[in-house]
Amino acid sequence: MAIIINVVTKYRLLNKSNFVIVILLLLVSLLGFKVWNLNIKVSQLTESEAAKTEKVPTEKVPVETSSLDLIEVPQRDNEEKYETLKKLSVEVQISYFSKLLGNPAFINLVGENQELKEYVYVDEDFYAQAVTDNNDKVLSYAITSRAKDFNPTFEMSGLYKVSLNKTPFSEWRIDTFNKLPLSCYYFIGAHDPIYYFEEDYFGNPGNYLSFLVGINNSATYNDLPNTYDPYDRMTWGRIDCEKIKQADREKMAPNTFIVRNTLLVDVKDENLFKGGPSVWFGPDNIQTRTLNE
Q: Has this prediction a pTM greater than 0.90?
C-alpha cells in the first residue's frame, strides 16, 4: 500500500481519472492482507486442535458379544468340578448349563419329530448331556465320568447316594421296602451301543423325578452285569431286574448318573425305548468317539 502511494506522489499521477484506480488498489491490497492474516489464524487453530487430539487417547467402545461367542470356563480341580455338577438341574434353561460348563461340543435334534434338542458338554473328566424342549427347558440330564478316579457324588437324603465308579449298583438306593429298583435296561449291540441302567422313581420325596445310574460306553468301564440266562444279554430295552446277577450288582459300579423329568417320559411305557438308548441314557459313543482330543 505504501509503495502505491509513493509511486502516485512521485510521478504526480493523482488526478480525477486515476484517483478511483488508486482507491481500488488500496481496497484490493487491504482485502489481500486480511485474507492472508485469516489463513495464518486458521492454520494455527488447526495445529492446536491436532495437538489436543494427540494428547487425549481415543476411548474404545466395547463390542457387544453375541450368543455364539465362546464361554470361557475357568480351570477347576476335581473338587470344584464336583461342586459344579451338583448345581445342574432339570427345569432350568439350557443357558444355565452353558454358564456352568461352557459351550456344548454337540447339539443334536432328537425326538420323533425332532422337537427336542440334545446338548453334550465335554470335559477331560466327564461328559454332561442335557435334553431340552422347544423352549430350551432342560427335561433330562446325564453325567458320565470319563476316568476311574473322577468320582462325583450325587445324593438326595434318604433316597439315594451314588459316587460314580465307586458305589456298587446294589448300594445306590437307600430303600428299606424294595430290594430291587423300579426298572432295569439292557442294551448290547454288535459294536455299539453297550448300556446297562437301573431306574427308580421316588414321587414326592424325590420331586416327582426319575433317577438312573448305569454304564454308558462313551467312557471307561469294565463290563456290564451278567444275567442268569445268557440269552438275556441279547435283550434290547427293558429287562426284569430279577434277571440281573446280584453278585455282579454288588461288585460293579455305574459311570453315569441321570435325572429325568417324568413329563418327558412315562416310566410305565413299555415301548418307551424302542428306538434304542441314544439320548435317553447319556451321550452316544458313536458321536463322542469322533472327538480329537
A: no
